[in-house]
Amino acid sequence: MNNAELRIHTIRYPQRAKLDADFLKIFSPFHTIQLVIGSCRVNPLNGYLSIPVWYQRAYSLMLVILNIFIYIYISGVYSSKFKSYPGVQDLMNILIPLHFSSYFVNIIHVRFCRGRDNVALYKKIQELDRIMKIDKNKTVNEMMFKRNVIAVFIVLLPFIALLPIAINVGVSATVITLGIASTQSPFILDVTQSITFIIHFSSRILIINSILMNYLNSKMRIMMMRSKVRGSRFMRELVEKNYEFASSETDVYLRKIFDCFTIYQELYKFQIFVFCCKIVGYSILAFQFTLLTIQNNIMELYDGILVVTLAIVDSSTLILVCVHCEIFFREIKKLKLLTITLMAAFNQGPLRNKAKRMFTMIEETTPRFYVYDMWEMDAGFLLSFTNVITGLIVTLLQFAFL
After folding, report:
1. Which of 113, 146, 348, 359 is in the most buried spot, having the most CB atoms within 10 Å?
2. What is the DSSP letter of 346?
3. What span, in angstroms and rounded, lies between the C-alpha atoms of 63 and 70?
């Protein structure tokens, strides 16, 4: 990047942005927990959002160093436990670094990379809500805030539930649980927050679809069989009371959503890439570990619970990412069909021009969540990913029993 591009980047994506308190509150459940565990992408303070400051980055590095010692202890525990079983011991010598390396690269990325883009994403989302005139809607903000509170609680619940079990088992199990929780929860929280952004974009596309469908149903008297808008009754009532297609700048709304999604994709594709690679590695190693420990009758109850819990957390998170990406893309496909219907209904005029601009925008810049052009996050990828994991597990079973 040359000096001119750097100056443009600095102006466009500032290090600090003034945001509304109600808007910041929506994401406060994630920010609060992430600040404690040292993985927050931004620094929310007194109505401003900025890149992480030096002492926050130092705190994150301190936690990384602390977790290094915890993982050294965990390695020692499992090496001692399985010293008579070299195959199991070798698996743990791979599995434990795999967990820590995923945590390490995630912390480095969220704390030290692309800070301006993280601030820009929140700023763009607030601009979108302002243009759509829902930034001051307390009901909408409260609904999104509660959704994020529930999301954070669900993410932390498995790690909290493991703690009393570990305490009952002993000191080593407690340290292992704390180490796993402190390294895996930041990653899962970050991916879960990416899901909430996708839901945010989907709900805005849903509003645009509702505006168009209401117009077609009430003014044009067509598509009556499709008059039921998918989503909550509250959202349908919101659109009916506050939006008219003729006066609403739906093409501007759509362009802003696409701008937000572009920044979002660039920010989170690295996390999704690492997360998918981690799931593949963990699934194979954890299954092989379970297989060998059961065959040798050395599987302990706590180890089994830990393996299953982490597998459920990772797989559930991946499923939610793919499902919500699929919902987002299907809403865009529905919007494309609606714009075609509008263009067919009008031969000329401002409404046709607006519908045509939206159609052209979708055709030329359809947002797809590509991970470094290797795969696309949608329902199809979930099926393919499941087939790969299943095939590898079947291969392991064949080597073990045939």
Report:
1. 359
2. -
3. 10
